[in-house]
C-alpha cells in the first residue's frame, strides 16, 4: 500500500478498528458447488436496489407529485434535463430487473431449502422485501401519471376492492377516495419515496446482517461431505470481486437497455378518456391477473374473483411460512415435495405470464 | 249532335231519379234541410255524399224513421256530433280499410290515420284526451272535396292558408311549441315558391311539398323530410326533376353537384349536420337564391372571418362593380370542393389568374404570385419539420413539445388560408412568417433530437467499452489473486 493510502487507512483504523472487519471478512468463506452461481443473485439484487436509490434521488430533484405537474415534470426531465432520459430509463429498467433478480434469488433459496433453520428470519425478511419490491413497482408505475399507468392502477385497486369486508376500505385507503385521482398520486408518491424505502432499509439491514452473521447457506449435500472435501472460496476478496464483476456486467446491460429501449412516457392520463384496449399490469403481476380471468364468475356460492384473490393470498402466506412447515428440510432430510411445488410454481408463473403477455 | 243531347238529358234524368230513390228514405237530410241547416246543405257538395254515403255513416241513427226521437235515439245507434279522436276514428273506419276504399273506386293510400298518429300533430293536445289534429281540422267536415279540387282547403293553392290558421297564430302555437316561429307564411310569400303559388301556380312548393301531409315530423326528427340530412333529397324531388323544372328554365343538377361538394360529402356521407343543407344558403320558408352582393354574407354565417376579410378587401368593390357573386366566383356554388393552396397564384389552375394577368393588372398578378410563393414555402417548412419530428419520434426520442409546436405551424398555415381573403400581402406575410418561424423552431428541435440520438449511441459505445475493459481487468485481477492463493 502506498504511504499516503496507508496513512489514511491507519487514521481510519485507529478510530473504527478496520483490522477486525478485514479479519472477519477474511475468515468468511463461501461454499463452492454446482449451484454456487445462484449466490450471486442476492448481490445483483442489492446492486440494482442501490441503483434504484441513487437514480430515484436524482429523479426526485425534478419530479413533481401532483396531478397537474407529474406528467409534465417527467416530460421536462426527459427532453430538457441533461441525461434525464438516461436516469429515468435506468430507474425503470433497474426496477424490473430488480424484481426479476430478487425473484430468481428467492427461488434459488427455495430450491436449495436455504430457508431452513437457522435462516428462517433471513427468508422472512427477504420475502417481505420481495412483496415491498412489488409495492414499489405498483406505486412507481403510477407516478408518471400517464394513460396506461392510470388505468392499470384503476384495475389493480379495483381488484383489491372486491375482497369481502376489508376490500373497500383498502381500496379507498389506496386511492385516497372512491376513484383514482390526484389524491391517489400523492399517496402512491408518499409510499414510493418514504414509506416503502423506510421499511425496506430496515428489512435490508436485518437481512444483510443475518447473511454476514450466519454466512452463506451450505447445500444439504455438504452435510454428508467430509469437511476436507468441502470446496469454499474466501468471501473477501474472491466472492466480493466476482460480485463486482457481475455488477459491472449488469451495469452494461442496463446502459444498453436504457439507450436502445428508452422507457416511453405515453399520453397524459385523462380520467374522462376511455380505457385503452388490452390494458395489462406490469409483467410481475401478469400471472395473477391472467389467472383471475380464467376463474368463473361464480364458484359454488363464492364469487370467483374474490376466491381467486384469497387463494393467491393464502398461497403467498404459505410460501412465506415455508421454513415453519417444511419440517423435513429443517431436519436435514431431502424434501422432494418442496422441489416439485417450487417447479410447479415456476412453470405456472412462466406459462401464465406468457399467456397474459400474448393475449 | 242532337243524338248526344238526348243521351245527356236521359242520363241527367236517370241520375236525378237514382238520387231521389237513394235518399228518398233519408229522413236526416229531409228534416235538416227543412230546418235550413248549413251543414246539411254543405254535405250535398261533399265527395262522400256523391259516393253514396249518408249522415248515418258518420253520425249513426235511423234514417228511415220519421220520428225524430226514435231516429236519433241511442237505441238506433245515434252518436250525435263526434268529438276528439272519435272524429278521426270514424274517418279511419273507411279510409284505413283498403278494401272499402277500393269499393268506392278510390286509389288513396290507407295509412293516413296511422301516419297522423305518429306525426308531430299526432301528439296529445293540451286537454290530454285527444290528438292535436283531427282529419277535419284540415279537410273540414261536411264540404269535403278531393285534394285535386281547387275548392279543397288542402289543394296546393290553399294549403298554405290552411296550415297558417294555426301556424301563424302566435297565441295558439305558444301552447304547443313557443320556440317555433309563426312567420312562416310571411316568409313564404316573399319566396320564389310563395310568389308563384300566390299567382296561382299549383306546381310550386307549398307546405306539404316539403313537410309531407299526414306524416309531418319535427324538423329535428331524423325521420323528418326536412331533417338536415334528408332536406337536399326533399328539395331534389322537384329541383332534380327535369319535367317539373322545364317550365321554370332552371338547371336540375344542383343536387348532383351538391352531393359531390365538400358540404354535401360532410352532410350526406359523414352525416355531420353542422354542414350546410340547401336551406342554410337559400333559406327555408323564404327560399330564394342569395343576391350577388350578399353571397359573402350568406357564406359568412359559417365562414365568418373569411367573409369579414373579404368585405374589407379591395375585391369587394371590384366584384360588386363587375356583378361577380363574391365567394362563388372563386369557390363555385353547389359543387364547392375543399379549398387547396392551388387556388392561389398565377398558374393556369389558380383562380387569381382568371382575372389577374401579367400585362393587364400587374399589381394583383404580383401579389397573387407572392402569396402563393409564401404559402408554398410555409408548407414546405412545415413538411420538413414534420419529417424531422417523425424521424426523431421513430428513433424513440421524447419530442412531444416539438410536436405540439408543429400544431402551431399548421395553425399558422390554416390562418394564412383565411388571411388570403384580405388580399393584403403584408398581413398575409405576417401570418405566414409566424408559421415559418414556428416550423424552423420545430426543425431545430428535430435536428437536436436526432443529434442527441446519435450522441447517445456514441456515449453508450464509449461507456460499454470502458465498463467492458473494467470487467476484463477485474476478471484478470481475480484470476491473478486466485493463482497466487493456489500457489500459497
Written description of the protein model:
The complex is a heterodimer of chains A (359) and B (488). Helix content of chain A is 70%, strand content 3%. By secondary structure, chain A is mainly alpha-helical. In chain A, the strands form two sheets. Chain A has a two-stranded antiparallel ribbon with strand order 1-2. In chain A, strands 3-4 form a two-stranded antiparallel ribbon. With 488 residues, chain B is an all-alpha fold. Chain B has a domain at 341-451. In chain B, α18 (254-260) packs across α19, α25 (362-394) packs antiparallel against α26 and α25 (362-394) packs parallel to α27 (425-487). Chain B is elongated. The chains are: A mainly alpha (359), B mainly alpha (488). Chain A binds chain B through residues 75, 78-79, 85-86, 234, 237-238, 241-242, 244-245, 248-249, 251-252, 255-256, 259-262, 264-265, and chain B through 396-401, 456-457, 459-460, 463-464, 467-468, 470-471, 474-475, 477-478, 481-482, 485.
Amino acid at each position: 500500500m502506498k504511504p499516503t493510502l496507508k496513512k489514511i487507512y491507519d487514521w481510519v483504523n485507529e478510530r473504527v478498528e478496520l483490522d477486525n472487519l478485514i479479519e472477519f471478512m477474511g475468515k468468511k468463506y463461501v461454499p463452492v458447488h454446482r449451484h454456487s452461481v445462484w449466490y450471486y443473485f442476492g448481490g445483483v439484487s442489492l446492486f440494482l436496489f442501490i441503483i434504484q436509490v441513487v437514480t430515484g434521488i436524482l429523479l426526485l430533484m425534478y419530479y413533481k407529485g401532483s396531478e397537474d405537474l407529474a406528467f409534465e415534470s417527467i416530460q421536462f426531465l426527459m427532453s430538457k434535463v441533461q441525461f434525464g432520459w438516461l436516469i429515468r430509463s435506468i430507474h425503470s429498467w433497474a426496477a424490473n430487473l430488480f424484481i426479476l433478480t430478487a425473484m430468481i434469488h428467492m427461488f434459488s433459496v427455495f430450491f436449495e431449502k436455504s430457508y431452513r433453520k437457522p435462516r428462517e428470519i433471513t427468508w422472512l425478511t427477504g420475502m417481505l422485501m420481495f412483496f415491498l419490491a412489488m409495492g414499489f413497482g405498483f406505486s412507481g408505475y403510477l407516478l408518471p401519471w400517464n394513460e396506461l399507468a392510470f388505468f392499470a392502477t384503476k384495475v389493480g385497486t379495483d381488484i383489491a376492492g372486491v375482497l369481502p369486508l376489508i376490500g373497500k376500505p383498502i381500496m379507498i385507503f389506496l386511492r385516497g377516495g372512491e376513484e383514482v385521482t390526484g389524491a391517489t398520486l400523492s399517496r402512491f408518491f408518499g409510499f414510493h419515496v418514504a414509506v416503502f424505502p423506510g421499511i425496506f432499509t430496515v428489512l435490508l439491514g436485518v437481512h444483510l446482517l443475518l447473511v454476514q452473521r450466519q454466512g452463506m447457506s451450505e447445500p444439504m449435500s455438504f452435510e454428508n461431505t467430509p469437511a476436507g472435501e468441502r470446496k469454499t472460496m474466501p468471501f473477501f476478496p474472491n466472492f466480493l470481486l466476482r460480485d463486482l464483476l457481475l455488477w459491472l456486467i449488469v451495469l452494461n446491460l442496463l446502459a444498453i437497455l436504457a439507450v436502445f429501449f428508452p422507457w416511453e412516457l405515453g399520453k397524459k392520463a385523462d380520467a374522462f378518456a376511455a380505457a385503452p384496449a388490452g390494458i395489462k399490469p406490469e409483467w410481475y403481476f401478469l400471472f395473477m391477473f391472467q389467472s383471475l380471468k380464467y376463474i368463473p364468475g361464480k364458484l359454488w356460492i363464492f364469487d370467483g374473483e374474490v376466491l381467486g384473490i384469497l387463494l393467491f393470498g393464502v398461497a403467498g402466506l404459505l410460501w412465506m411460512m415455508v421454513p415453519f412447515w417444511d419440517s423435513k428440510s429443517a431436519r436435514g432430510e431431502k424434501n422432494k415435495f418442496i422441489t416439485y411445488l417450487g417447479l410447479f410454481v415456476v412453470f405456472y408463473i412462466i406459462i401464465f405470464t406468457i399467456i397474459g403477455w400474448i393475449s | 249532335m242532337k243524338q248526344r243531347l238526348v243521351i245527356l238529358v236521359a242520363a241527367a234524368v236517370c241520375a236525378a231519379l237514382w238520387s231521389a230513390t237513394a235518399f228518398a228514405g233519408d229522413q236526416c237530410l229531409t228534416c235538416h234541410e227543412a230546418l235550413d241547416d248549413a251543414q246539411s246543405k254543405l254535405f250535398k257538395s261533399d265527395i262522400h255524399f256523391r259516393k253514396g254515403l249518408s249522415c248515418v255513416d258518420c253520425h249513426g241513427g235511423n234514417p228511415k224513421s220519421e220520428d225524430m226521437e226514435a231516429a236519433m235515439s241511442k237505441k238506433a245507434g245515434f252518436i250525435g256530433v263526434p268529438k276528439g279522436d272519435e272524429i278521426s276514428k270514424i274517418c279511419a273506419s273507411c279510409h284505413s280499410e283498403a278494401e272499402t276504399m277500393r269499393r268506392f273506386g278510390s286509389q288513396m293510400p290507407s295509412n293516413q290515420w296511422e301516419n297522423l298518429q305518429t306525426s308531430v300533430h299526432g301528439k296529445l293536445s293540451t286537454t290530454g284526451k285527444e290528438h292535436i289534429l283531427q282529419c277535419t281540422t284540415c279537410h273540414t267536415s261536411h264540404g269535403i272535396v278531393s285534394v285535386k279540387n281547387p275548392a279543397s282547403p288542402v289543394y296546393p293553392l290553399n294549403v298554405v292558408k290552411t296550415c297558417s290558421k294555426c301556424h301563424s297564430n302566435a297565441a295558439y302555437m305558444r301552447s304547443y311549441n313557443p320556440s317555433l316561429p309563426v312567420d312562416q307564411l310571411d316568409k313564404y310569400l316573399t319566396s320564389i315558391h310563395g310568389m308563384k303559388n300566390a299567382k296561382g301556380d299549383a306546381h310550386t312548393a307549398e307546405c306539404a311539398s316539403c313537410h309531407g301531409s299526414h306524416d309531418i315530423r319535427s324538423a329535428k326528427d331524423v325521420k323528418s323530410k326536412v331533417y338536415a340530412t334528408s332536406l337536399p333529397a326533399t328539395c331534389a324531388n322537384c329541383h332534380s326533376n327535369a319535367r317539373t323544372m322545364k317550365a321554370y328554365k332552371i338547371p336540375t343538377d344542383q343536387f348532383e353537384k351538391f352531393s359531390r361538394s365538400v358540404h354535401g360529402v360532410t352532410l350526406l356521407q359523414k352525416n355531420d349536420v353542422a354542414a350546410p343543407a340547401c336551406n342554410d344558403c337559400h333559406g327555408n320558408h323564404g327560399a330564394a337564391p342569395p343576391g350577388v352582393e350578399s353571397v359573402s354574407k350568406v357564406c359568412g354565417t359559417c365562414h365568418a372571418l373569411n367573409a369579414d376579410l373579404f368585405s374589407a378587401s379591395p375585391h369587394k368593390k371590384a366584384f360588386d362593380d363587375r356583378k361577380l357573386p363574391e365567394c362563388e366566383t372563386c369557390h363555385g356554388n353547389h359543387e364547392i370542393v375543399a379549398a387547396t393552396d392551388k387556388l392561389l397564384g398565377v398558374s393556369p389552375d389558380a383562380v387569381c389568374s382568371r382575372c389577374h394577368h401579367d400585362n393587364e393588372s400587374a399589381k394583383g398578378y404580383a401579389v397573387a404570385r407572392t402569396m402563393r410563393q409564401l404559402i408554398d414555402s410555409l408548407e414546405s417548412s412545415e413538411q420538413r419539420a414534420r419529417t424531422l419530428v417523425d424521424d426523431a419520434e421513430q428513433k424513440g426520442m421524447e419530442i412531444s413539445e416539438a410536436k405540439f409546436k408543429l400544431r402551431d405551424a399548421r395553425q399558422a398555415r390554416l390562418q394564412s388560408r383565411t388571411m388570403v381573403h384580405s388580399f393584403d400581402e403584408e398581413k398575409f406575410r405576417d401570418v405566414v412568417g409566424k408559421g415559418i418561424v414556428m416550423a424552423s423552431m420545430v426543425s431545430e428541435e428535430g435536428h437536436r433530437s436526432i443529434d442527441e440520438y446519435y450522441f447517445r449511441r456514441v456515449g453508450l459505445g464509449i461507456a460499454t467499452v470502458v465498463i467492458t475493459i473494467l470487467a476484463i481487468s477485474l476478471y484478470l485481477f481475480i484470476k491473478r489473486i486466485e493463482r497466487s492463493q493456489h500457489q500459497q
